[in-house]
Amino acid sequence: MLAEETVQKVLGCGVEGGADFAEVFVEDSEVSAIDLLDRKLKDVTSGNAFGVGVRLLFGDEAYYGYSSDAEEESLLELTANLARSGRSNEGGALAPLTRETVNDRHSVRIDPTTVPKGQRVELLRHLDELARKHGDAIAQVGASVLEKKRSVLIANSEGLWVEDARQYARLRLSAVADTGDGPQTASESPGVLGGYEFFDGLDVDRIAGDAAQSALRMAGAGYIEGGLMPVVLGNGFGGVIFHEACGHPLETEAIRKGASPFAGKIGEAVAQPILTAIDDGTMENRWGSLNVDDEGQPAQRTVLIEKGVLKNYLSDRIGARQVGVPRSGSARRESYRFAPVSRMRNTYIDRGPHKVEDMIASVDFGLYAKKMGGGSVDPATGEFNFSVQEGYAIRGGKIAEPVRGATLIGKGYEVLSLISMIGDDLELAAGMCGASSGWVPTTVGQPSIKIDSILVGGR
Amino acid sequence: MDFQQASEFALSLARERHERDVDVLVGRNQSLSIKVLGGKVEKVDQSTSQGLGLRVLREGRTGIAYTERMDPEAIERAFLAAGENADLNDRTEVEMVERVPTVPDPETLELYNPALDDLTLDDLAQFGLAAEEAALAGDPRVKAVPALVVKRSRGIYQVASSHGLQYGQEENSVGAYCSVMLEENGVRKSGGHQWSAREWAPEKGEWLGREAARKGAALMGARPISGGALPVVLDEETAPALLGMYFSGLSAESVQKGLSRFKDKVGQPVAGESIQLLDDPHRKGAPGSRFLDAEGTPTAPLPILENGVLRNLFYHVESARREGRQSTGHAGRGYNGGIGTRSHSLVMNPGEYDLDALCALTERCLLITELEGGAGCNPVSGDISIGVQGFLVENGRRTQPVDSVTIAGNFFDLLQNIQALGDRYQPNLSNRFIPAMLVEGFVLSG
Q: Which residues touch B395 (CB under 8 Å, ≥6 apart)?
């Protein structure tokens, strides 16, 4: 992607300019997207994203620059500029580059470029039909396929040279139902780190059915009366709460700023003993998996919380050094336009002993949040908010009427200790996570869980 | 090649290949930003990025392709891909604007101040360090300043077509954001403030830090209040943020596709009689102001709400032709995507009350100064369900900071239930000119 000689010169320019450490990140991405809306193809897009990022570290200070101009002269100018901005040090050592072979765990069985684009169009039209079959109240259907191949090269002044190719495939289906009381939307968005075989293997009836039925149920739903109540969170995308409320504050990017409720708590009990949570970048073909992270470290499986005790943070080079923890292979970035920071990969609460039926049966009045929408968190305070895409009131230990427009808010570390039951029905779901190094593919997941008390916003 | 040459090269390919309808959008962004932590600059970002997007139209079929490489080979590859994508696409009513309009000089929009490009790393660093120092000194309970970013950026946007269209403009700004974390007795609270402008104002650094600390400190000791119906006042920062999540429903494309509750509402009252809303594409200094939209259609101020009556929706060429009418100049597009609908500057008429006076209009209300995410806000259904923070105001006095509450309602009811408006807009660069507002009809959960 970039000549070795050029990379070496750029790294050399960085350390000669006084940096302790220099790193080059080259990205060449091919993107292809097809959108269908209102029974018609809307956008058929292909693109090439290309650029080079240069990072220089002067102690704890990071200088990052990027450009889509990869001419050697421009890159050297960029690097020299960055170096001039840094404080004058003696500079680190420059080791000779050694090519490392990536252990490719994530197979691409069908190269997407060998499949005619028309096949994707057929898939989208088929999904549209399947979703609409769920009744006249399905007022609109949108469907899209997104494929991206990110080829990256990471090289640094310590002699690392590693290249990796990451092939992503994702489907999105959204259904809009209107039963006369205003439109309601629901969507399904499965995705993998893998090839076209993902689309061939999709259970299209289930995906279309889930989106359409969820939208229909919410279209006929009323509102829940808000307040503090027990909540049973459905499996799969329900894990977005752990992701936002606990995962982000466990990244060294939050810890090193002294702005996380989990700072200094390794080895302490932060949850009830039934809870174990893991962030695993090695899971085969999972949406949030990696071979190597964006600093070139091999992906790892990191146990975050084991039987209620905080075990590890997710770290990058700077975070690991500042916080004093090992690197976890979690440095990630959306593209060459971002310097890498510690981010989640496939994050989930591990399975537990309970049945979801028993959780429901244990609640006199509460909310069953079968399916979560999105949410966000303030990592400094742990304050989070989430929308419930598909919810039901629980009355007398039974699932009762569907409810819409519910929001869950609370503080992550407080909620963690209120998780009292964990199901045996672990599921994972693909999502996109936005933070300081951009949007990266992450998987969230959990079995069904019961939280004894949480504030539900309703009417 | 530079982006100007790249654009010309792409159009020369169109001529060579007898491709009749092609347009090219190029974007180039440069920025310099710093992050401050612990009394020093801990991160510097310096960037230049650019991209070229091609749109090829073949008998109503649109194909899009883009490249961030500006060499002939990459552009030719994108050109071929756009053509192939067009052949695959469905036919629509879209067509390219053939009559090239004459428009005023974009410089008159006052979006670019060359002096900002001279700001050095040191200028930004001094600003950031002053902000951090002021934030830490602002209140003894400030324990950390986890986010402090100062950034200057500059963007050039240019669109050209095989029909002779050639339009470009340049825009820049400088801004900063500071967030603080306060802690007392194990309870934490964040406070954040931002500043953006097109004039450099180094003295704003200290002010920014102080404001962030002040806002966080004011919320210390916050607790929920009991639920139920309560009038709320959205301040001049939260009002545009909340309403802004729902304006996509004003796009004709959304209405046509059943994704908006504004369907069949043009000519109908949808908001209180005192509400006026104008979309102004020529507002001086407002980010995104422009004389031509992304398809080359001239823009003009467009009344959206007049005395609460919905007057117009936003159209691009395709949505307009679907109804046999003219585009209103609301096509938007980035180099890496297709045509969508965008508003320009949405300007709601201000009222006569400052924030305190607005809160004093009712005996008891919740003044909302922070919104917590927007995941429970659905622009299609209009549902609003969102965590908020702020102050309980009783008889015109702030009697308690409030957190851990949610408000729920619907955007379309909100428009009808605006009781009074504030007398000013928030001061940062924005294209949402929405004042503070007193709204009834929300249900609070706490």
A: B360, B363, B364
